[in-house]
Design brief:
By secondary structure, the protein is mainly alpha-helical. It has a single domain, classed as Winged helix-like DNA-binding domain superfamily/Winged helix DNA-binding domain (Arc Repressor Mutant, subunit A), CATH 1.10.10. Helices cover 65% and strands 0% of the residues. It contains 7 helices and no strands. The protein starts with 11 loop residues before the first helix and ends in a 16-residue tail after the last helix. The C terminus is likely disordered.
């Protein structure tokens, strides 16, 4: 009697998350931050990959050494789900200044994920159509 390999793809969810979130780029970090609440819900439903990615996101934010204002901008826009205008009012800056804070924070967080990828910490470097790292 021969026992074959299971036909279940054990890493399907992990690959799907990695494809959706190119975390070595500010755009990928922005996507995961926008999906923060959906990932929390998936975590509570037992999705282990959502747990891992949320944990890694928190570690990356901690290691990114964001300024207090950058942390506040990320918190109000992505965790509290305020508009940029309302978040700007909450921390006392104009909407365009808040957008700049978010952009710098996303770039700093992406740099942490990119460093992890170069150190082979479980993340991949994503390349554009010309073979350049994005």
């Amino acid at each position: 009697m021969l026992i074959g390999a299971p036909k279940i793809d054990m890493n399907e969810k992990e690959r799907a998350l990695e494809a959706r979130y190119a975390l070595d780029s500010p755009a990928g970090v922005r996507k995961i931050l926008r999906d923060y609440h959906a990932l929390l819900e998936r975590q509570y439903k037992g999705d282990y990959d959502a747990v891992v990615i949320l944990n890694d996101l928190q570690r990356a934010v901690d290691q990114a050494q964001l300024t207090r204002r950058q942390r506040q901008a990320v918190y109000y826009v992505y965790v509290r789900d305020l508009t940029q205008s309302d978040a700007g009012k909450a921390i006392g800056v104009a909407q365009h200044s808040l957008a700049g804070l978010l952009a710098r924070a996303e770039a700093e967080i992406a740099a942490v994920f990119e460093a992890w990828a170069w150190q082979d910490e479980g993340y991949a470097i994503h390349y554009d159509n010309y073979g350049e790292a994005e």
